[in-house]
Amino acid sequence: MKKPKLLIVVLFQNLGEEHPYYARNPAPPLPGILLAGLTPPELQVEVLHEMVRPINYATEADYIALSFMDYLAPHAYEVARRFRPQGKIVIGGGKFASTFPDEVQPHFDSILVGEAPTVWPTMVRDLLAGQLKPRYVADPAPSLENIPPPRYDLVESRYAVAIVTEATRSCPHPCTYCALNIRRTPFRMRPIPDVIRDLRNTRGVPWHKRKMAMILDNNLGGDLSYAKALLREIAKLRFWAVGTQFSIECLRDDEFVDLLAKARCRMAFIGMESLNDRSLHAVQKRQNRVEEYKEFFAKLHRRGILTFTGLMFALDEDTVEYYRRLPAMLDDVGNAVILSSIAIPIYGTPLHRHVVAEGRITDTDLSHYEGDHLVFRHPHMTPEEIFEAYQRVNRVFYSVRAIARRWARIIAMQVREESWPQYLLRLAVVSFVYLKLSIFQRHHAQVRVFAASGQALAQPPADGRPWKPACASLA
Ligand code: SF4
């Protein structure tokens, strides 16, 4: 008998359906393939990442599960509204659904509140029995033991990396803009053997993608002893390239850097966010010290670990003068790649409460809270000044000439610690990862920063249909 089919859709839609889709990230987000791994075998599963493939509304799937972040909620509601009249049962989940369930629930047949592993198998059982309840709520901080491996065989082929997993959840820092600080949960770690099992589980993955992996934690360095123990085990797997993410103060620990290099970490995402100490303090990002950046980034680059650094615009203490100097400052500290965005007062965060209390929100359309729109009034700068700076920094940083110059500088910094063949492999991988990330970000700058959002800054939605929250806590 044919099994019923579940289509898991990881939403990513801020380009408009008329635009081409592209893999802004080298690897898929974890939720879709993790949920597929948790799904009992009674269901046939497909995972669709909207970042790289449009939704097929004529799918033969019986059930649809939508995973989405806050700014994608209006889009998620629209997707659910198109599927439900076809008789499909549509389930919603993700951080926003978990934070504002009363807002989200009316749009779905059922929602999953919290982390999926302990609740999803029960939901599927009820779904198949025709007894699906409107809401399933997980423990606020469930154990991370015995989570099955993600379904790497279902990763879209357009992602350069297929092997992605997580080792920890949450983060010990209090950054006021971070969604993790809407409702803080304790920093938790998975058993190291479980993480290693995931990384070895390459069945169904094309051979050329078996040598690269990403650990998609919020902050791998939340417990450095654990991180070091894990990196020692990862080093034994002899990947060509591993990517991960951690907060910058971890780089004060030389042993941590050494173990990253031994594990063949080739890309570290770091929340640098600003080169303005006053702005960093204002958002409680006190673990970042601007005077340390240059030394830290060089320390990583010498070992073949590229820095992929977040950079936020429109933080409250930023000024026109700061942005005038920013391109030269970035050149001096030597970031390899930046991920730039305009500051987002995510609903429910301490930053959002602060901006609301000062009456500075100018745009309540949730779909604009994606990092390319300015949705609040800045205390010192006009929207035009901010957007001019946002464009100019991206234009300078992602010019073809600047990309080539940074590549040459990083290659020249490499220190050989291994045999010549391994060293040459390292140079090739570093070049590949650097160019791939730079091309993704340059493309994003061209599609979103230069072309799309200039007119949209602090403007009401052009189609005259602003998103209206159903939930009082969001209104
Ligand atoms: S360090 Fe990063 S993950 Fe941790 S709270 Fe700050 S922004 Fe969030």
Task: Please outline what is shown here.
36% of the residues lie in helices and 14% in strands.
* CATH architecture type of the largest domain: Alpha-Beta Horseshoe
State the separation between the terminal residues, measured CA to CA: 48 Å
Give the number of DSSP strands. Answer: 14
CATH class of the largest domain: Alpha Beta
Main sheet specs: 6 strands, parallel
**Helicity, as a percent range:** 25-40%
Low-confidence stretches: 453-467
Q: Give the number of domains.
A: 2
Shape: globular
Rounded average pLDDT: 91
Number of helices: 15
- Rounded to an integer in angstroms, the radius of gyration calculated over CA atoms is 22 Å
